[in-house]
């Protein structure tokens, strides 16, 4: 009897532990305020994202930038963000009245501050410059009642790599033995040490008010070069692992491939996937509970030609970005609802040309994500290949996070998810699918 009671007691405790762990998972939802400025289908207001916020623990609002003249954190669009304009800094924080458990975080950088990117390195070299940034950041957080700051710091990107077979990779490694890697930053080691000091200084300034400080590792930023993980991790509340946009038609216009796989793809160069990045941070003594996995609510699209073949199996030859969609209005970038509309459905079965449905290829392994394509017609036109996350693959990433006891998920971006519910009738299906797996 006592043994039976002991077993039941232990089982109940284990269930409570699992429940507690899952309850602590972060669901971080990005919202790019500039989507409010778009016209037509791309316009996304604060009111549009409200149905998502009951699923989110954090709302990351972007993006702020860095003013080179005085090293201050500033709005990248004052007419949108400040009280003298549309007041979106204040509007997103007003959401906490309806969602009192929501934390609203301001993100700086994020590959959106495109003017003089060198300033993100220059400021690190000056203690006076760092202090100016910290003081201005604190003032904005305090004035608009943000709950923290996210550093999506714009370090130099690694150069695009050509997709190689295993044989090609072998000879490339031999070549690197003699030539070394391409040096993107001659003072990378100094900037690494200075960024460590910068993070420590920011955290010290924010700690008294309980502001959070987090880091987003942007795609193609070499973490081993710029982040001294053991030295910075205790000053960060969480780290968003940016393994999306691994392949894009802008970086790799001639080769289409999967853009956000969880695991290493076969016959590819090592690295550039969620598992490799997570393993690196864990090896550097980062707690699993602080690692958050980014999930894109959009896809990357290439234009196919007659040289692309008919199988659609990646990697395959391509000819730059595919045409823009009606919502995103950016060549090579399609939101989830734009992709969903191109997949087979009763409304497009008999359409031809650029309106013909794509052929969807699922991922039964749950390791790499789906893709969809349409081979060019007899005139070599209307060919397209898209790598994306759908609700199923987003759910797979949520399951991966749970299985590895990681800190949570980050959806990029609410404006790219199906916020109108046009695809399946459910609003924000990418967010919902990933959240439910936690």
TrEMBL record:
Could you tell me which residue ranges the GH18 domain spans?
25-438
Keywords (A to Z) from UniProt: Disulfide bond, Glycoprotein, Secreted, Signal
Please name the InterPro entries in this protein's record: Chitinase_II/V-like_cat, Chitinase_insertion_sf, GH, Glyco_hydro18_cat, Glycosyl_Hydrlase_18, IDGF
Q: Where is the signal peptide?
A: 1-20
Compartments annotated for it: namely: Secreted
Question: Could you give a GO molecular-function term held by this entry?
Answer: chitin binding
Domain of life of the source: Eukaryota
Q: Which GO terms describe its cellular component?
A: extracellular region
* GO BP term, pick one: chitin catabolic process
To which protein family does this belong?
Belongs to the glycosyl hydrolase 18 family. IDGF subfamily.
Protein name per its UniProtKB record: Putative imaginal disc growth factor 4
């Amino acid at each position: 009897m006592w043994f039976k009671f002991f077993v039941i007691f232990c089982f109940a405790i284990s269930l409570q532990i699992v429940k507690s762990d899952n309850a602590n998972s972060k669901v971080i939802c990005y919202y790019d305020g500039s989507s409010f400025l778009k016209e037509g289908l791309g316009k996304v207001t604060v009111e549009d994202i409200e149905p998502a916020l009951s699923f989110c623990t954090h709302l990351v609002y972007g993006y702020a930038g860095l003013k080179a003249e005085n090293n201050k954190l500033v709005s990248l669009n004052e007419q949108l963000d400040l009280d003298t304009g549309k007041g979106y800094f204040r509007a997103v924080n007003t959401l906490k009245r309806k969602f009192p458990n929501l934390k609203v975080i301001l993100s700086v950088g994020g590959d959106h501050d495109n003017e003089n990117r060198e300033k993100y390195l220059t400021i690190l070299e000056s203690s006076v410059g760092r202090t100016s940034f910290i003081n201005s950041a604190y003032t904005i957080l305090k004035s608009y009642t943000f709950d923290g700051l996210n550093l999506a710091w714009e370090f130099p990107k690694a150069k695009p790599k050509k997709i190689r077979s295993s044989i090609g990779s072998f000879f490339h490694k031999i070549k690197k033995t003699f030539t070394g890697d391409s040096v993107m930053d001659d003072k990378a080691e100094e900037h690494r040490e200075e960024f460590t000091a910068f993070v420590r200084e920011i955290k010290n300034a924010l700690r008294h008010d309980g502001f959070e400080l987090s880091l987003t590792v942007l795609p193609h930023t070499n973490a081993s070069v710029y982040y001294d993980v053991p030295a910075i991790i205790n000053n960060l509340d969480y780290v968003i692992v940016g393994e999306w946009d691994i392949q894009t038609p802008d970086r790799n216009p001639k080769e289409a491939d999967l853009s956000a796989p969880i695991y290493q793809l076969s016959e590819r160069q090592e690295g550039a996937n969620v598992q490799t990045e997570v393993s690196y941070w864990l090896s550097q003594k980062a707690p699993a509970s602080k690692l958050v996995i980014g999930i894109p609510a959009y896809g990357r699209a290439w234009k196919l030609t007659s040289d692309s073949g008919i199988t659609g199996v990646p990697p395959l030859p391509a000819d730059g970005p595919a045409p823009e969609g009606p919502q995103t209005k950016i060549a090579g970038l399609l939101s989830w609802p734009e992709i969903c509309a191109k997949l087979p459905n009763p409304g497009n079965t008999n359409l031809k040309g650029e309106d013909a449905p794509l052929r969807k290829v699922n991922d039964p392994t749950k390791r790499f994500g789906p893709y969809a394509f349409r081979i060019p017609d007899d005139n070599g036109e209307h060919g397209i290949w898209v790598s994306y996350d759908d609700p199923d693959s987003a759910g797979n990433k949520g399951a991966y996070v749970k299985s590895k006891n990681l800190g949570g998920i980050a959806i990029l971006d609410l404006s790219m998810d199906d916020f109108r519910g046009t695809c399946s009738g459910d609003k924000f299906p990418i967010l919902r699918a990933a959240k439910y797996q936690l």
